[in-house]
């Protein structure tokens, strides 16, 4: 799920690389975390922090084939 979120600006054509989107938390994981707790996510990859960042970066650079659900139908919902 995190890769999907980080790759959204790429999919939308806003940036050419994940790290270039300034509102993303991606750089918090790969550089220096100031507002996130990266340890929770990094435990999934590896216990060695340096190796973990490398694996995290590689994982995020892989193409995500996950299909998102685009809903174009608009419905007006009333309180009734």
From TrEMBL:
A GO molecular-function annotation: transposase activity
InterPro entries named among the record's database cross-references: Transposase_17_sf (IPR036515)
Gene Ontology annotations of biological process type: DNA transposition
Protein name: Transposase
Lineage summary: Bacteria, Bacillati, Bacillota, Clostridia, Peptostreptococcales
């Amino acid at each position: 799920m995190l890769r999907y979120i980080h790759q959204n600006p790429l999919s939308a054509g806003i940036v050419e690389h994940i790290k270039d989107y300034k509102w993303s938390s991606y750089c918090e994981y790969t550089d220096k975390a100031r507002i996130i707790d990266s340890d929770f996510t990094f435990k999934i990859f590896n216990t060695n922090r340096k190796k973990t960042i490398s694996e995290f970066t590689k994982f995020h650079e892989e193409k995500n084939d996950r299909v998102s659900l685009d809903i174009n139908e608009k419905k007006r919902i009333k309180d009734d």
